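Assess this today:

___
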Amino acid sequence: MSDSFEDRIASYTARVDQGLDAALPLASRSPERLHDAMRYAVLNGGKRVRPLLVYATGECLNVATNLLDAPAVAIELIHAFSLVHDDLPAMDNDDLRRGKPTVHKQYDEATAILAADALQPLAFSVLANVQGAPPGAAIQLVRLITDACGSTGMTGGQSIDLAAEGTALSAAELEHMYSLKTGALIHASVVSACLLSNDLPAADADALDRFGRGIGTAFQIKDDILDVEGDTQVIGKTAGSDASLNKATYPAMFGIEASRKRCDELLADALGSLERFGDSAAPLRWLAHYIVERAR
């Protein structure tokens, strides 16, 4: 195995893409248009950051890679479901995602809604079929990801986001919204690997929990910065869309420099939580830096 996690990213993304392809119904299967839209939504590129966090945490804890495939695939399906809904006219009304037309533009609004609706239960089907996991782990994984995508997680965060358009939020209110809207699924990516580790000490679980929460919030602040400073061709979605919708974001509330400073603070805290793991946490350190320093 290569010493650099960066060198293993291609093999991990190929692994999760293979798992996604296997989980998704063939486009030739009825209803063909729905299944084609599902595959378009999921297999249309993407950084696969959340699956990579699953695998990186698994490396840190020496969890067998084959056990990590189910949560990696399931979490990416949930992420894809959320993006399709976020892009809808009733939500963020975006035309581009990953440099290509959003699902409701490529197909139609009704098909996009149904495709996203179908991706969510498919994720839980994948989780329910995890093989070789510790006793009770499959149920714990389902509960973890249910909480991450429900009204007290990602969906709730999106609701707060929509309600906050045109209003001013405090830093604490913004970070609470981010911890649900984006952070909950990123946190679940880290914790899912913890649930597959036998006899994980409580202190180690707490440290990784802290890492997941911090880096999840940092991810969304960085997204906000890229929406202001990024180029549409690079970030793969329409730059400046947050401002056009008058969204409550960190740069809008506190400026770019304060946003960068907060990202750096969250990164430092997340990295600090990994100190107890020594060199085994190198993959997570690499991903943490990537999340805060990325250009898209």
